[in-house]
Design brief:
16% strand; disordered N terminus; 32% helix; Alkaline Phosphatase, subunit A
């Protein structure tokens, strides 16, 4: 029988408070501290926005004005603040901050499956055979966020890797272990009821009562050690429960997650959408010391009614959130220390199909980077006249991973080892895009 604390919460319930993919905060912190290897550090963080489903390069970043109508689509070309760089009329706000963007038009890989595409772009590694659509925890190589968490020194008020508004498939740690999984904000910050449950003490528990609970918990641990083989150092266990409590009671952590502290006018600038408010929350998190925030923005699989889906549902939130994020970071002096990446698992087909949509196309597509001290204000790479293949400066997913790691001050050639001792380089042979760095 489990003993209850005075407020009715028993020890087992406490252990469940604050989880990362089922891992308690205490276990996460304990596992992270167990690795004492020296880790390089540079004061650059990353906000990684993943448009789930396949972002259409023709209709946004790589418009082909001279192509036939079935290739060109229904949108028009507009100028940006960068001479010679044009976007589509879906992106009028983004066109005004094009001087802060680097558009990589030569992204390419060879897999048109959604799940495998997620893994390739989230990790920089092409997986072997298997179904990568059936489970969230499908990593065979660490995600970029988990790599950053592994190579980051601990001690901050926030976890080094956070994901919002859910766990992003293929965003896991693979052989690095659960301690380098993301801390998942499983809630939409655009919701009026938004809270981050894992950093808030249960209702009715004050900080003073939480301190008393810690003392009670230590006493319970001492008792249970007599009847359980915990297999852990007892003092360390107490230490990590203390750290878990510290996160839940940290004013800095609570402030970082409390998006309601922002002015309504700024929230409106970002847009009261899931993407807009996730971007604003991400700015708060990197400002408070988180090194890598991943954002899922879904529903981009436009096999039908591509024009309507993009114009009415998908692109407006992007065109509002991204310029607001970049300007906000710049105004706070954070843009040079925050790399912003807008990625996707693959692009869309050059030719519009019979359902007025575009299908999967990994051969050639675009991603966008900004901030982090990279060289911006232009496009890198090019595709042919219909956007079907890369004709200049191809960039592979391993190259993308190597670029992100390099900008964050992490050597992409760093070799880590699996539990069986197999050496595995972080970026698996990828080379940074030198034109950016």
């Amino acid at each position: 029988m489990l003993s209850n604390f005075c407020d009715g919460l028993n020890r087992r319930e406490f252990v469940r408070v604050g989880t990362v993919g089922g891992l308690s905060l205490a276990s996460l912190l304990r596992a992270q501290a167990a690795d004492s290897n020296p880790k390089p550090k540079r004061d650059v963080n990353c906000i990684f926005i993943f448009t789930l489903g396949g972002m259409p390069q023709h209709d946004m970043w790589d418009f082909k004005p001279d192509a036939p109508a079935e290739i060109r689509g229904d949108f028009q070309s507009i100028p940006t603040v960068v001479p010679g760089v044009r976007l589509t009329d879906l992106l009028p706000r983004t066109a005004q901050v094009a001087d802060k963007l680097a558009i990589l038009r030569g992204m390419t890989h060879g897999d048109s499956d959604h799940g495998r595409g997620y893994h390739i772009m989230m990790t920089g590694m092409t997986p072997g055979p298997g179904d990568f659509n059936s489970t969230k925890n499908n990593n065979v190589h660490p995600s970029i966020g988990s790599m950053v968490a592994r190579m980051t020194s601990g001690g901050g008020a926030l976890p080094p890797y956070i994901s919002a508004p859910c766990f992003l498939r293929s965003g896991g740690p693979a052989f690095l272990g659960a301690s380098y999984a993301p801390f998942v904000i499983d809630a939409d910050p655009a919701s009026p009821e938004f809270t981050v449950q894992d950093i808030v003490l249960p209702t009715g528990i004050t900080n003073e009562r939480s301190l008393r609970r810690q003392e009670a918990l230590r006493a319970i641990n001492r008792f249970e050690r007599k009847v359980e083989d915990l297999g852990k150092d007892v003092q360390s266990l107490d230490t990590f429960y203390q750290k878990a409590y510290s996160l839940m009671t940290s004013e800095k952590a609570k402030e970082a997650f409390d998006i309601r502290r922002e002015k309504e006018s700024l929230r409106d600038d970002y847009g009261m959408t899931s993407l807009g408010q996730c971007c604003l929350l991400s700015r708060r998190l990197v400002e408070a010391g988180c090194r890598f925030v991943s954002i899922e923005n879904g529903h981009w699989d436009t096999h039908r009614e591509n024009t309507k889906s993009l114009r009415d549902l998908l692109v407006p939130s992007v065109d509002r959130a991204i310029p607001a994020l970049l300007r906000d970071l710049e105004a706070r002096g954070l843009l040079d220390s925050t790399l912003v990446v807008i990625a996707t698992e693959f692009g869309r087909t050059p030719r519009i199909n019979v359902m007025a949509g575009r299908d999967h196309w990994p051969n050639a597509f675009s991603i966008v980077m900004a901030g982090g001290g990279i060289k911006v204000g232009g496009a890198i790479g090019a595709t042919d006249k219909i956007g079907a293949s890369v004709t200049d400066r191809p960039v592979t997913p391993p190259d993308m991973a190597a670029t992100i790691l390099s900008v964050l001050g992490i050597d992409p050639d760093t070799v880590l080892h699996t539990p069986l001792g197999r050496p595995v380089p972080l970026a698996l042979g990828g080379k940074p895009v030198t034109e950016l760095i």
